[in-house]
Every structure is written in structure tokens, then in C-alpha cells.
Amino acid sequence: MSADLVGEIEELSSAHGATWIVLLGLVSQAPEPKDMDGFLAWLGEADGIAIRRSLLALKCHDLPESQLDAAAAGDVEALERTLRSPSLADREAWRSNLASLFETSPAALGPRFASALRRFRDEAFSHAEKEFSLPTERDAAAKAALIPTTSPSGIIEIATNGVEHQLPSHVTTLLLVPSVVVRPWSLLVEHDTTYILCYPVADESMSAEPDSPPQWLVKTYKALADDRRLRILHRLSSREATLQELAEHLGVAKSTIHHHMALLRAAGLVRVRVGGAKDQSSYGIRREALPESMRLMDVYLASAKPIEEAETP
Amino acid sequence: MAELLDLTERRPSLTVGVDVSPAYDLLLALWALEEDDLDTFELGP
User: Fold this and answer.
1) Bridge partners (DSSP) listed for residue A190
2) What ipTM describes this predicted complex?
3) Closest CA to A244 of A236, A256, A254
4) Residues of A in contact with B2 (CB under 8 A)
5) For residue range A104-124, what is the model confidence (pLDDT) as tens digits?
6) What is the 3-state secondary structure (H, E, C) of A132-156?
7) Exposed / middle / buried, residue A49 (Cβ in 10 Å: 0-12, 13-18, 19+)
8) With a CB-CB cutoff of 8 Å, which residues 141-160 of chain A face chain B?
9) A181 and A149 in contact (C-beta within 8 Å)?
10) How many of the other CB atoms lie within 10 Å of CB of A208?
11) Which of A108, A24, A249, A81 is nearest to B28 (CA)?
12) Which percentage of chain A shows pLDDT scores above 70?
């Protein structure tokens, strides 16, 4: 990247990427089409006072709304009070970043961000943008297909490869955003009452094969396709058990059971409770996972295109 | 402390959706490289 672009990026965000986190929230609000040109054009004309308000809200959402509104609108005293507030006491980098950003007039703020993003795209991101497009679209379609019949927690768990999220009750919208960049991590961003979950695009969506099965589906059926593991599930159906109890039940070494339990856990077929009797972890069956795996198999099979359609030129 | 919600149950007031835009990954790339040397930014093969 050119030196002046590096300098501009550093000026816009010098607080652990907080500025870009705020702009993520603006993408969620942008009108369609949300392709890059459409978004950058919208950002270039966006209300600078609203952008300022979003910047302030990131770390100061506990302050009175009227104070934040006044600060965003240009009330110097309100801005100084906000910058001196306890909310920013331990966030010197962000406070300094905010003070710097507020030196740009509201009318120039949107164009400045849009210009920097456009230059970053041209100089460093255009290749990645093309490469990421298909996997991202493919993964979005796969997750959207799950929404009507899967609980929010179930979708989050699938999208993040096992992360359990508890959302505050004031959240009205959960937005799933597939991302290649964050792989294999996830990033949760709060924007007003919307939670934006940037989750890693799944391996199967990265694959060039359009009919690749979801990896969690493969894991589940591999986990079930074993005599010992089915016996373990059978045993756990009556009540929870420790590794030692399972080893004795099957007449195998504890290390062997450990291996099987790892596969069953990875497939989401068992749950573990830490700190039971004698401070040992105990395992239980996740009965809901079995009908869920069959339903997800149905979703995968239903994604196949009809033969007639596929063969028609 | 905010009241936490058990998401194993659906609630009518919660909307769940998927949003796609290349702008997300562009911003996430900027976010991810904040701690790194901006001169050495690279993505993809």
C-alpha cells in the first residue's frame, strides 16, 4: 500500500480497529445493493452526524442519549464531557481517535471514509474481494436455509463451530455475516439493538465443489457409524456416566473411550458436565441432536438441483 | 447487568437473518491488520 494510504488508515483508526467495527454496523444499515460500489457510494453521502453518533455509541452507550446527540451535532461542551466520561477512562487510544475524527466536519466524514476504503480496496483488497465472493454467497445461502427451522442458538452454534452465545434481551435482530477474513474466529458486534455475528465461512463453502456436504454433517454420521460409539450412546440414554464408567461398561481402556467421546462431542451428540461427583466430568446424550442431524441431512439433500434443470443447456 | 436470554427458545421479537456484502470483509481486513504492519498487508494466496 502507498505510504499516504497507510497514514490515512492509521489516522482514521488507531484504537484496535474500533472505527472499522463501527462501520461494520453501518454496512448492516446500508440499503441494497450492498456490493462494494453501492456501499461506498452510500457511505460517501451518508449523514456525517449519524456516523459521529455511531462512533460515540460504541463505547459510550451508557451515557445519556441527549448528550451523545449534542456531541455528534457539534456541541463542543457535550463532546468534551463525553470524552472525559468514565466510559472512556481506560480507553485513551479510542478517546484520542474520537477527538481526531471529530476534527473532520460532518459533511466531510462520509466522503473521507469512503475515499479511504475505496483506495484500500484498489490497492490491497480487490483480488481478495473476487476470491471471497462465491464462498461467502454459498455459505450465506446454506445458513439462510437453516433459519426457518433452527433455533437462534442452534444456528449460532453451527455457524461458529460450537460457540454458545447468550444475547441480552434488548437485542431485536441477530444478523449472521459470513466472513472469509475472520476464519476460523468469530466476531460479535453490537450496533443499536442489532447483534452482528461475523462468523467464519465454513470449509465446505470454501471448497470449489458446489455439492460438498457440510462438515458437521460428515462429522455426525461418521461419529454414528461405529459399533462402540453407538453402544456408548445407548448407555448414556439411561443416565449420565463418567469416562471410567463407560470404560468399564465397554471393557476397554479409558484412553479408548476418550477417543470415542472426542468424536461424539465434536459431532454434538453428547454434552459434558464438569465437576460432578468426585470432581469428575460426566457425559450425557444430546437426544435433540439425532433428529436435528436427520433434518440437516434433509436440508443438504434438498439443496440438489433437479436433474432436468441441471442438464438443460 | 443485562438480562440474558436462553436462545434455545425462539422469541417473536428476535429477527434472525443473513447479510452479505463484500464491504464486511473489507472492514474486517482493516480491523484484523490494525495490530500488524500495514505495509505488509496480504490476503489470499
Assistant:
1) A195
2) 0.72
3) A254
4) 168-170
5) 999 999 999 999 999 999 999
6) HHHHHHHHHHHHHHHHHHCCHHHHH
7) middle
8) 143-144, 147, 151-156
9) no
10) 7
11) A24
12) 96
Any idea what the Cα angle at residue A118 is, between residues B30 and A115, rounded to 5°? 100
Rounded Cα distance between A72 and A82, Å, is 10
Contacts of B40 in chain A (CB under 8 A): none
User: How is residue A37 written as a grid cell?
Assistant: 460500489
Q: Which of A29-38, A119-128, A224-233, A293-302 is predicted least confidently?
A: A293-302
Q: Which amino acid is at A174?
A: L
3-state class (DSSP) for residue B16: strand
Q: Which amino acid is at A308?
A: E
Interface test with A, best of B3, B6, B14, B30 (most A CBs within 10 A): B30
C-alpha cell at A102: 471529530
Question: Would you state the cell numbers that stand for residue B11, as one nine-digit string?
Answer: 422469541
CB-count exposure of residue A143 (10 Å: 0-12, 13-18, 19+)? buried
Place of cell 453402544: A231
With a CB cutoff of 8 Å and minimum separation 6, the contacts of A146 are A154, A155, A158, A296, A299
The residue length of chain A stands at 313
Pairwise CA distance, residues A50 & A106, whole Å: 9
The matching CATH number, chosen from 3.40.50.2300, 1.10.10.10, 3.40.50.10780, 1.20.120.450, for A215-300 is 1.10.10.10
The domain spans of chain A are: 3-200, 215-300
Measured in whole angstroms, how far is the alpha carbon of residue A94 from the centre of its chain?
23
Cβ-defined contact of B16 to A152 (cutoff 8 Å): yes
pLDDT in the model for residue A176? 96
pLDDT, tens digit, 9 for 90 and up, residues A243-280: 999 999 999 999 999 999 989 987 888 887 766 566 67
Give the number of residues written for chain B: 45
